Known about the structure:
The chain has helices at about 35-50, 75-85, 100-105, 120-130, 145-155, 185-190, 200-205, 205-220, 245-260, and strands at about 15, 20, 25-30, 55, 90-95, 110-115, 135, 160-165, 195-200, 225-230. By secondary structure, the chain is α/β, with parallel strands linked by helices. The protein has one domain (about 15-260): Alpha-Beta Barrel (TIM Barrel). The model has no long low-confidence stretch (mean pLDDT about 95). Phosphoenolpyruvate binds near residues 94, 116, 167 and 199.
Amino acid sequence: xxSRQHHPARSVIRVGGVPIGPDTLSVIAGPCAVETxxxxxxxxxxxxxxxxxxxxxxxxxxxxxxxSYQGLGExxxxxxxxxxxxxxxxxxxxxxxxxxxxxxxxxxxxxQIGARNMQNFALLQAVGxxxxxxxxxxxxxATIEExxxxxxxxxxxxxxxxxxxxxxxxxxxxxxxxxxxISAVPVxxxxxxxxxxxxxxxxxxxxxxxxxxxxxxxAAGADGxxxxxxxxxxxxxxxxxxxxxxSDVREIADAVTILSPLM
Length: 263
Ligand code: PEP
């Protein structure tokens, strides 16, 4: 269902009316985690200045350590819905278990499946039935074939509104948090009709790499990027090292305006 063999034209997915796919470069941006209404609103205002047409923010955080910040849960979703109201940007947020899919879908415009859950098949089937577009991140140890099979689980339940997100894979390299597999962009676009975006924040894990990796993603033909922003990264409860600050926002906006006509 997700293969280009039976569907040669590349798909455009609409999220709250905003298109993601060929001929557009979508910027999804906002805080890694929702912490407070003020922090979320400020991060999303910065996201708008960076050129974002959709907002991101995690209310349920699937952390490697159980002692790390786990998110505000439904309270965080309410904050996201208020920030959508305030800014007009549709909400992309993660869901981490099949039992809460309908509740998260009642607040979200797009459901995100994180890298750690890429092969949580019960969750994939649940979002396949939820009636919302899905952002499917690549598992950090998943091959492209495994990633596309995960998308097939969602599609099989009747939901073809899927956007794939390359977010870096685990390699022997330790200088970066993950290794951005930039070749996945054209490879997957050839194999599948689904849009492919890149997460330059979680791939590098470092703020100084986000702008260069964004440029690389655009040059490789990605259909969009998803970026972490925080008004005060030093106080961030999650992934502050990779969050962009105000001075980076202009560079992202420039990269998008200057490079996207080359696509
Ligand atoms: C995220 O985008 O908030 C996230 C946790 O990303 P990943 O699943 O790619 O690690």
